[in-house]
Fold this protein.
Amino acid sequence: MDGNEQGELLPTAAFEDLASLAADCCGVSIGVVLTWEGEKYSVLGAVGMELLSDDFPENLHPFFRASFREETVVQDLRNDPRFEKRPKLGEQERPAFFAGVPFASAAGQQGALCVLDLSPQKPGTKQLSALHRLASQAARLLDLGDSLRSQRLARGIFEEEKSRLFRVIDSAEMGIWELDLESGEFAFNEKWAAILGYSSLELGKLDRKGKEAFIHPQDLSESERALSDYLAGILPRYECELRMKHRKGYWVWILERAELKREAEGGAGRWLFGTLTDNSEQVVAYEQIYLREKKFKILLENSEDAIAILNREGRPHFETESVSRILGLETTPRSAEPIRRLVHPADLEEFDEWFRQALDNPGKALGGNVSRLRHADGSWRHVSGTMTNFFGNPIINGLVYNFKDVSRQVLAEERRRSLENRYRKLAQEGADLVCVIDEEGTFHYLSTNFRHYLGFSEDELEGKNAFGFVHPDDLPWVLEDFAKIKELRQIHGLPYRFKHQEDGWRWVKSVVTNLLDDPDIHGIVINSIDVTAVIDAKKELEQSNERFRLALKAGSESIYDYHPETERTFVSETFEEDFGISLGSMEENFQLIRDRIHPDDLGQAVREFREALENPEVSTWTRQYRLLKGDGTYAHIRDRSIKQTDKSGKPVRVVGALMDTTQIDFFEKLHDIEKEFIESSLVSNTDEKALYRRYLLQLESLIPGMKASILKIEDRKLKNYVSPSLDPGWIRAIEHLDVGPNQGSCGTAAYYGERVLVTDVYEDPRWENYTELARDYGIGACWSFPIFNVEGKVVATIANYYSTPREVGEKEVKTLERAQRLISLLMAQFDYLEKIRLSNERYELVNKSTNEAIFDWDVQKDRFYWGESFTRVFGHDHQVAEFTLETWTNLMHPSDNQEKAGEWEEFIADPQADRWQNQFRFRRKDGSYAFVEESAFIIRDEAGKALRMIGVLRDRTELKRMELLLANASKLSRVGGWEVDVLNDRLLWSPITCEIHEVPIGFTASTAAGIDFYREDFRESVAAMVASTMERGDKFDFEAPIITANGEERWVRAIGEPEFVDDRCVRIFGSIQDIQERKLMEDRLKGVSDSLPGLIFQYILNADGTDEFRYVSRGSIKLLGLSPEECMADSELVWSRLAKGGDLEEVRKSLDESASSLSFWNWEWKVLSPEGKIRWREGRGTPSKRADGSVVWDGLIVDVTHRRNLENLLDQSTKMAKIGSWELDLTLEPIQLNWSSTTRSILGVERLGGMRLEKVYQIFVGQSEEIARQAMEGLIEKGRGFDVELELDGAGGKRRWIRCIGQAVHVKGKTLSAFGSLQDIHERKLSELNLKRLLLERNTILESIGDGFFAVDSNFTVTYWNKQAEKLMKVPRAEILGKNVWDVFETGGLDRFRRKFEQALASGKAVNFEDYLAEFKVWFSVSAFPSDSGLTVFFKDVTQNKNAQEEIRNSNDRFERVSEATNDAIWDAQLSEGKLYWGRGFKSLFGYDLDVFTPDYKFYVDRIHPQDRKRVVGSQERAKANPQVRHWNEEYRFQRADDTYAYVMDRAIFTRNSWGKATRIIGAMADITERREFEESLKKLNVKLKRQAKELAISNSGLEQFAYVASHDLQEPLRMVSSFLSLLDRKYREHLDDKAQQYIHFAVDGAIRMKQIILDLLEYSRVGKGEKELETIHLEDLIFEVSQLQAQLIEEKNATIRFEGIPTLTSFKAPLLQVFQNLIGNALKYSREEEPPLILVSCEEERYQWLLAVKDNGIGVKEEYFDKIFIIFQRLHSKEEYTGTGLGLAIVKKIIDSLGGKIWVESVYSQGTSFYFTIPKPGKKGGEG
């Protein structure tokens, strides 16, 4: 809302008053209230603007804009550097001071309250606070304006809705009526009367009976029944189609709809509201369609084709009479039987597949199916059918099965095929390729299976030379073999390559037979078989073996293959390379590896291996052990194994991978050391030097033989800092040596600022001056790295020393590099912390003053002390001597004083009350009253008597004025306020809010009680919104009904937002508005619009081309599948639904035409419903044009699908049946024949319209013309129908046969109409006339084929047996012909053959299978083809192929097992074939599922990180191109399946041909992400270290300050208290009674205990500081020292202290003494009275630490307090029972933590306690290695 609009709703004076208040509050002359929108601001109110020059807005623009975002204060604009680019301010009549604070309305309107002055100002906190409060009032004024605007807008919407509804009703051409069901009163509009031919004046006043008098008597009872069902709740609304009497005497078809009006309370009323629509045109259309349907039915019944409509189960729900004619079945009784039950079993599978395809292809006609259907007499009829899916058509809703009887054609074709069947099956269906060539090689005959095997048809090869298709490399020796055929009758050739039309080359093997002398053949017969699979299998086997060998060599692991029964073990050759161990035979390898396992690991490794072998649940397992290498060192091995078992579960094979993890283990240990180093540096009060010492000792333990040292650089000289293991003499010798060139390793490294690696100090010139010194102290090599501070200056060096010369090792250098970075970082951090500590010592706190009137009231003396702000705020002298409670009372307004008097007296008298809040009017010095808010705290003595009161007075005058202004405005707009005090669960309402709820003013309640005012069905949602506001801070704005205290329902709009303090909601506040009147109007309009049929809408087309739906009724849900809210929110949703129907452009065009001419809009279109069905819609509306150029339609959309479907039924049905229709126009002379588009297509004519009947006769040829003429004349003259077959001249002169049927309507000797159908029967006619020429048997060719072949009859008697069958089955033809095949072969090995052959005969379908005959040791591939006479069988020997496949499977299996066992991802790129193979490692390492996709080289390259891709691909290409390169490796990032990247090391081996060209690459990827990510983790730890270092500095500073206070300031007053009390006791002891002496004792005792607490706290803060060097500690001496300190208590309690275990350990003595002092002291203190204390101290040595314990027989500790006792100040007993401060065990825990150990307690209550703690050995972490 801009300023002008706000001014219309709220008086400008309100905002001017705000501006004036703001100016007065800040003591300036100018105030202004602004709002901001876009790049413009508007002034809502201002004062003092006349003081400014005209150009001030431009200069102040950035200040105003800044204040819209945040509080902006500029004390002097002339000197503020932020605005240097603006024109200089401060000149005459230009402001110098500016302050602005932002505000925002609930609707998001931004604004600012600003004050200005011509002179510089410095506003106080109170003034800025007042500005913020006034700004919040401005926001509330904006909210009030928004509320008033909403009301005005609601009234406008109501009027517009009312007007729109009337326009819709006019556009819909509907009558509107209302009926009182109780009185019978009937009301109607003008349109209702017009539909019946009357005006409302002519009809006059009607009642219910008068209205019913117009209804047709036959329809009245139906109308009453429909109304009764609706009123009883059976129907959702009253709806009835009936006839009503028109004024002119005829009956008008009417559609009536109605619903009951709803009362305001939501119940049904007595008034029935309804509509009346003239439906006559639609009823007439239905009648016309009925006649057309009847006519169409006659055509279908006389058609040659049968039509059935099937559901999804294949059950017919419609059949034409032709179905009965073709199948002899009655249609009605069969309606529930699926059509597939009539299909012949042999055709059923194909029929079902055809049926399924029809279901999957909506709208597509699928023809070409010929099936046998059972006739009623039991015979089978061949039918040719077409099936079309019309499930999307609401009328048909099924599969249309259109079929005709083709039995005669099929039987004729079968007779033809039966003659050639034997040869076709024998010669053409075999696996052999059979051809006949001449002596030159020219093809003269080819079998049909050439296309199947080689892609060429017979026509493409016949007449061409066969040798032209042989591979050039094979042609010479093929020709050489072929030349021998003249001398030899038959040649068995070697495999050669023959061209394939699509797939390149295929390998074939041929048998060539010379039959040139045969009179039938006269050529050379070649029988060939495709052996590509065998050749490829051999090749694949070779590649697989090669892949396996190279993968083993490329991988980072050594692979083994172990056979448990024989213990034969294959080990890859990489084992010798990786471990330097010479392998033996496969029988020796297992024992060889076993003997080299470390003795400590051997037992467990063998046990794990055996357990895994014996456990059937385990298939993979991993072991770790050490293996002795060839050089005598041990390698750490990770052994991952995969077990393979047989069917019984017995292990038969174990494949595994051995990976050397020595280096990985080394860097993991280094990582742990560095992690501990960093974490220790973060511990409070860490000793820097001790930290470095422990770190260097750990590094020395990690690298045997290495000694580490850190030297600092001071004044360009070396100074020892930490050298834990170097000889002290060496340290003294190098102390203070100069930094410079040739100054040893450290001096040189510090001088040049770079690392110096000296491998032999006796040969290196940099050690020339120190060789003798090095020899004296046994130093042979020294590597040094400089350490830099944050400025890049060398401040120290770290060095590694070795006793003998030593070459640089990768591990050592990397360790030293990492140590250099870590120490550089930590030294910089410790230096930074030291600077912070020094800075914090100089830091002092600064107290701030306030502008609120602060007072301090001495209640006993009744005197007030005021701050200076008392004078500034109220004008009174703050230093007045006598300001009493009476003075205060006199300054209060008399009425307020009287009102608050009682409450004040109760507060003063209540000993528990401490806080006082009050609001009243307070008189200023000038006599005016200020509204003030008082907030105070009272101090009382032990008896509750008031002693002192401290508080503030806040001036709330201006806020109060604004509240009154808002209250008046709220009353006018019926907007009330409310607030929820969340902490106290208290709901506060303004008077208007109370009035809305009809409760007394001042009413309060809980939040839940307030929600209960909402109507029951809304309470849950309201409660959820309030809960969301409290939890997440969400604002809310909703409308809902409430039930007032008086039981009235009222609609309200509620707005609320929360206030949070410290992330906790403390209050929710907002407004509530009475919207009952608007809601009633909306509901009334909605009821009217929802009662109308269809969808009512208001559509706006804007001048700029955009559009919107301003209103949409609930009918949108049914017609569009969208809610009204969705339609109105986005018009594109509506258009997208229309677009699915395909008519969107036409609809938009019709609207544009209506808009341009402002003519009535009426259009029909189709849509796609949410259920996927086509529906038709009709829209109507009257447009009107607005002043802004937009056009508005108020209209109606209705569903007209039913009417459109009926109109389209005839056309769709004729197309479905493929039958054309025709009709004679008997009204014309000469008579004309009109036809449908299908008929025109069949006749082959171009004319769209009809043709003279005489000319139609001329289309037919021969006798057909006369037949057609006689049939038509009989139809016209006598009404005699006909059904004839005619031949005609079609398009392009082609003759076609048709079937023509005619029918007539003949009444009283006259033909009124004549019509009929036309059907194309040309194919059926031709199939009856044509038969194929029979082919002769070619037994000679059958005998020469390479397959075994035999034929049997249905009883399995052998009728044919070829030579190859004799050879393969070893049975001569003479011994088997005429015999049953199963009698000849009685062996059980042919059981599967028999089952398959019987299956083929029973099903009538061919079978193909492979089987192994053990008797012959041969694999056979068998194909059996059934026929009417029996079975034809082809079989061939495929043993060689099977063996090759098994070899490939074994090889691939071995490779897969290796891939699974290894941790590498194996890959194989076959460059010559462009193939890429990935092993299983790609799934385990990178997540790629190789069962889902096949990778290629592009996929691999795309997975390489973009930043690495060019480098890696280039490197690989260069290696591939270089014939000398055999090995390749790279490190790069590789993308995983989840899109993250892994760092990999990729190693590969190239295979090259004899010319050096790379033909194959075998590679292995290892995931090295963890190693590469360590650097990143270190950086993150460094960042964390910096952040925690800052926090630590602050914490240390506070602790240091506390320590100072505790050791000095806090103890001093305690000493004074205890000293003076002691003096008082000594001096006046005789004059004091026992009670007084007891009080003195209590006070002195308290002071002593307080001092002890301070000392303990001081001790606690010092834990971890000041430890000296590590030393050997004798525990018995330490415990003796503690016993001496506790001697008196030990003697008093007769206690015994014993020690056992390890006597010495290395640590820091002072903190350990403190630990034992506290633990033994506690054991003595908490002993049982009845038993002397027995304390046992023990020490055990573990691998990395010492475990110590202090056990006693005291009172014990309950288990629930085990953790609590180590917390500072936590005590389990009162001070009367046991003395103490609760700090002892907290100190102990802190000491143990600082030493890197752990402490815990074990105890049985009343029986004793044991404290356990650990001390790490130097260089070790607590509890770890």
